[in-house]
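Hey, resending since the last one bounced:
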Amino acid sequence: MIKLGEYIELNVKRKSDLGYMLTDGKEEILLHFKQSLTEHEISDKVKVFIYSDKASRKTATEIEPFIDLEKSGFVKVVGKKEGTGVFVNINTPKDVLVSKDYLPYNEIFWPEVDDTLIAHLKVRGNNLSAKPLGRFDIIGLHKDVRYAEGEHVNGYVCKIAEGGIGIVTADYMYVFVPQTQLRGNHRLGEAVEVTITKLLDEEYYGMLNHQKEEMIDSDKELILEYIKKHNGRIKLTAKTEASIIEKELKISRKAFKRAYGGLYKDRIIDFDENETFLVK
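The structure tokens again:
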């Protein structure tokens, strides 16, 4: 039986108006002319990859897909359907679904068109689907490379968790960026540049790259917005514990104090022993 997602050698049985009809002796399957790398004669043996067309019929191609059931790799997001998932290009005429089952529950973290996922194929019923790789899958793929502390590396967001985000680099290396090193939300598949900060237990840690001045301005806006939402007064001060600041504002105490000091210097805020408040 010819199965979806497999590479198989079939015989050319006959030629039709659309392409070559291939067979394993029991089942026939179409190799469209556009999916053939060369001309074939009757009885030729042809090695093909089996995918499903838009009518969910098994179809053959001689063009190698970017990913398959065994091979993982990077694929580009080409479509998005609310409540269903996103579609990726695997180098076949039909794009493949990444189901919402494999995406964050909150759709604001879903990939956008032109984002990049690292995935492999799975068979779901009469169709192929793509499943993003998890952290340990990626770690098992990485190439024999080492990053230095302070090195800038390009990659894509491959994991979103409460404690931070995971980045997969072009070398299939996994880099974790803690929540305290983030500014705002990031989505799965988003292209980012990360600075390596350390290697701990064979796992890289990093921070997303921002100019220091831009970070301070961003943190100032974050603190001001937080104060305004709390009617101009908050219980946070420069003496507040780091765990409370990180919980409330999602930034480090160091970043908070830097921006807090800037706001005070500009006379935008003032404080007493217990509270910080806007200067009227």
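Residues 80 and 128 are 17 Å apart (CA to CA).

Sorry for the duplicate.
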